[in-house]
Protein 1
Amino acid sequence: MKHGIINRYLMREITGIFVLGLTIFTLVLLMGRMVKLMEMVVANGVPLAEVLRLIVLLLPSFLVLTIPMAFLLAVLLAFGRLSSDNEITVLKASGLSLGALLPPVLLTATAAALLTLFISVEAVPWGNTGFKQMTMDVARKYAASAIRERIFRDDLPNIVLYVDQYDEARRTMQRVMIQDSRDAERPLTIFAKSGLISSDDGTGVLRILLKNGTIHTQQKDDYRLISFGEYLLTAESGRSTPLVRTEMDLGIGELRSGIASSKVSPQTRLKMATELHSRFAFPFATFVFAILALPLGLSNRRSGKGSGFTISILILLVYYVLLSFLRTLAEKGGISPVLAVWLPNLTFLSIGLLLLRLASQEMTIRSALVRLFRFGRTA
């Protein structure tokens, strides 16, 4: 009964900080995309509801990273607070060993790892594919709405569009300038007094009907000036190409099929193999961070929450820099994808087990090094 009360107490402590950390880390990563997403609302007139749907589709790829990050922070801060408030000392005085503190940590780590595994295997390919598809659909649907007065629009392939005045309701333009460089040998510069723009929601093709203008073209030494009453210009919106799926958009079955297929290039197979193992390595990192954070949190008695947050950021920085470096090597064929993805986990797990053993013997890293140095001198 005593163990059950303590386990629930520790799990509540970890869970509360975990939810807060998960929210903060996810929002920080999401901020990088929020600028472009909000630009869609302001510049292109995309409804806020559709932008929120895009954010939901983005979340799985962020949560795979932020759940292990938040769990590391939660265990560090939870046990750091218990140590600084001498609650750990009281628990030890009541007869509880370090091993008795592991079950609630591992149980919460299991729940977090299973959640991460589900998101990694099922939600990530769904979210990535859905985000790409919806981005293309939104761009096609609101292609004509991206025009703003006295601003050069250069998102159309090889076309720059400038409009002095624009009536969004009627989609009419006044004093239009277009630089058409789709034919590199014969670029066109078009000026028109007015124009009307429309778009095909299915293909994203823009149709620009220009009225009362001139076309300036020059090919080598041949310069031509053409006047027109009406001129119809069609342009791709840049989003009408078929959806291209990368290894990050594929499910587990598709990744395995691609790795086994001889039709796929060797470099792509390496990327697929690296991504396949990453789908399982990230969830396992939750256990690694749990083992590593427990002894570090117990040793953090006087530094407070600021120190725990700093330690977690340093650990995460080293972990993801090492993982990114090894993944790059694996994708270029310099190292096995299995070793590249799992080596950071194995390295940090070994460090965590060593620190856990030292903590069970009431030893710090410094005292262990001093003892090892003295043993080397006597030997």
Note: The CA atoms of residues 370 and 376 lie 10 Å apart.
Protein 2
Amino acid sequence: MTTRTALEGIRVLDVTQVMAGPFCAMQLCDMGADVIKVEPPAGDATRRMAGARGTDSPGFNAVNRGKRGIVLDLKSAAGQEAFRRLLSRTDILIENYRPGVMRGFGLDYASLADEHPALIYASISGYGQTGPDAGKGGFDLIAQGVSGLMSVTGEPGRPPAKVGVPLTDLGAALFALSAVLAALHHRTRTGAGQYIDTSLVEAGVALSVWESAQYFSEGTIPEALGSAHRMWAPYQAIRCADGYVTLGSANDRLFRRLCALLDHPEWTEEPEFANDTLRVRHRAALIDRIERITAEGTRDHWIARFEAAGIPCGPINNYEEVYADPQVRARGMIVEVEHPALGRVRMPGPPVKMSATPPVASRPAPLLGQHTREVLREAGYSDAEISERFAS
């Protein structure tokens, strides 16, 4: 028996480019939605990223797998007409143009809602659809700076550093995803669609949970701490003889266990380390003591000892090590698809496991315009009309 998917029968128009919007739509695709990626004639800009072969790149494939791809020039009357015709069978529309662009096409939510009251319409932008900066473009690097993430990333006293992954892009994508799924549930109850508006900057602010808590509760401005935690210690990367490991003794019980393992149970009685607040305040002195000991042994030595004592710890893997990790492999976090231009492509698998309706990542990203004729035929166009009005 074929396993059904969670979003079987749901159709999505993905009018997005680069990262945030495509990543959001790909999650819906993995969950079984029929996602139609609408690209301009030149294609999504990520098709021309490093490693591209023609109009196909590993980066594009990484956030567009499983979708059907069509080319529509939304600046043209024919493209706008076709888009509106596709909406008659669409449940969800996701777009990440700069605010005002879809309105210029006559395809914004306000222009479509009366005719399509059940439509769920999600906009992902740099700053949101309102406010003094709404008209600015959306870029992860800029949003990481504006949202404060770069002020708390990296080592103290060093130049600003961004988070290693495009966190505001991916965060906005996942916030939009959760809102879309909530809106689907609301529509099941009421029959009504709605408009969703989120942004990269808001994602960065919302993800700054500990940092905002520190600022609001203490009035102090959080600073970069390297790998250290803002409210727990020791909870960071620790130096060993041949590199670093992560160590998470994040409460009094674990700290006592750590001190016993390091043969210094008396540390728990010292006033500077009596509780977590004091350990954070005297973090530098505490870490110096710990590293004088751990620097005498290898990473493998300390990981084995910490794990045997039930103290949270782990290696700091590079990506070759990540994808060789038995746990990562056991969880199906590598999927492979056959791409007509790129060949066999590996990429991260779905991070969510569902017992009845598991996500599926079995198809590559579409070639530019690969499904234009197929999708337009479904919308009622004849082959002659497609040839006359649209690029093949």
Note: The chain has two domains: 11-207+327-389, 235-316.
Protein 3
Amino acid sequence: MVPSIFSENLFDDIFDGNFLGGRNPLYGKHARNLMKTDIRETENGYEVAVELPGFKKDEISLEIKDGYLIVSAQKALDKGEEDKKGRILHQERYAGACTRSFYVGDVKPEDVRAVYDYGVLTVTLPKEAEKKLPSKTSVNIE
């Protein structure tokens, strides 16, 4: 039987990079589960749904920069709460920031719509107009 300080498989702890101090300071070894995203194509554009459970709307920022949609979330925990509510025996919540970016092409920020509801940020992006290729395929030689 493996001691409870290890996860389900002892070798997961050794070989996942976390055993030697490679932990993410915000969410530890669960960081890979953070900001899970679904991207779906609709008739008029694209819909990006990013899971951000536990974040408030004002802790999330959205930016379009150099053709990338950048989703950032920053969490702060009030250490003064410990004195008000009692001594903390075990704490898994951390303060920190996480960011994820997606290439979206030449999109204007005013054309992007975002809604945050029940821990899911849904961003709607317009489709780029299809560029027509020229029907002429031959090239003149000079």
Note: The chain has two domains: 1-33, 34-80+90-126.
Protein 4
Amino acid sequence: MTAAAVVPPASEPLDVVLVPMRRRHLRAVLRIEELVHPRPWSMGLFLSELAAGPSRVWYVAKVGSQVVGYAGLMLVAEDGHITNVAVAPAWQGHRIGRRLVHALATAARDAGARNLTLEVRVSNAPAQRLYRAFGFAPAGIRKGYYAETGEDALIMWAVDIDTPEYGQRLAQLAAAVPGTTTVEERR
């Protein structure tokens, strides 16, 4: 294991930088994608997302020079749809996902979205807890949504994300994360 791959204890504050995803990040993104998803997205799918313009927001999370997670958002009218959130297994429990979802929620608000939605595996209780912290509530089930396993997806929505109250929720969530999170601006 190289020095860059050393993972500190989960209790240790981290300095995490969230940068807009670029082609140069895709090799690392695909490695994480293959580790965490039974049916990983392809290089072509990520490239099409990156080429989609301002209707898509993608960030990678970096600790030092290492990509440790990523997340994406699709903007449609006044709704934001979180399409993918993944954290390398060794870095799970370090609040990387919380930082990424926070950045996407902030980007959605900045783009004028009023609501956020996503699908999550019904068996993925840790992710559901994370999303509930951001105000997501269950709204339905998509039967057999995950074709590779036949597992159902829980549809979750966070509404009224454009309100001052939701802005306060985001500020509280950010303040509860030890260490620093720097978000580089999208161009």
Note: Residues 71 and 85 are 4 Å apart (CA to CA).
